[in-house]
Amino acid sequence: MKTLFIAITIFASTLVVADPVNLLKPTNKAESWRLEKAGDAKSEMKIEDDSVVFTTSAVDSTDWHVQAVQTNLDLKDGKTYTIKFKAKSPDDVSITVNAMIDQEDWHQIGLNEEVQLRKEYKDFSFNFTANETVAKKNRISFVLGSGKGTVSLKDVTLTTK
User: Fold this and answer.
1) Digit-coded pLDDT (tens) for 55-109
2) 91-117 burial, b if ≥16 CB within 10 A, otherwise e?
3) How far apart, in whole angstroms, are the C-alpha atoms of residue 32 and residue 24?
4) Residue 92 to residue 154: CA distance in whole angstroms
5) Is residue 57 helix, strand or coil?
6) What is the CA radius of gyration of the chain?
7) Which pTM does this prediction carry?
């Protein structure tokens, strides 16, 4: 019995816990993102090394008139998710990250967090429980239209908790 216990202990100690699966596409690939602009808002996107960089040059009175989104997420009601990312801006801007459905009526599904950015990358992490999702029609949005400026994002992940 003692030999079996030792063997099980040795086997268990060799197991590697896998990292959670990222439900999002790579942050530093242009094809991972859809940059939405509406009204009088203007913004551009570029990839720099391991980051995606958005420069908003014109805004109007509606902050969501500039959004960077990742779509076609198959989130499930009642499941808890964690979104993590690093963000910075040389400008005094805040952004909002939210989860919503990617079709009319565009309702939010459990995440809506505003963050103030600094000149250096800062880590952000938010947990949320999804509700009122639509199969394969959910999205993560970074709302960029609250002010003019440049926002860099990297290491954006969405995992099941």
Assistant:
1) 999 999 999 999 999 999 999 999 999 999 999 999 989 999 999 999 999 999 9
2) eebbbbbbbbbbeeeeeebbbeeebeb
3) 8
4) 19
5) strand
6) 19
7) 0.88
Q: At 3, which helix (H) or strand (E)?
A: helix 2-14
Q: For residues 40-61, b (16+ Cβ closer than 10 Å) or e, as one string? A: ebbbeeebeeebbbbbbeebee
Q: What is the pLDDT of residue 14?
A: 47
| pLDDT for residue 3 is more than 70 | no
Phi, psi of 97 (to 5 degrees): -110, 130
Between CA 157 and CA 125 the distance in angstroms is 9
Single-letter amino acid, residue 133 = T
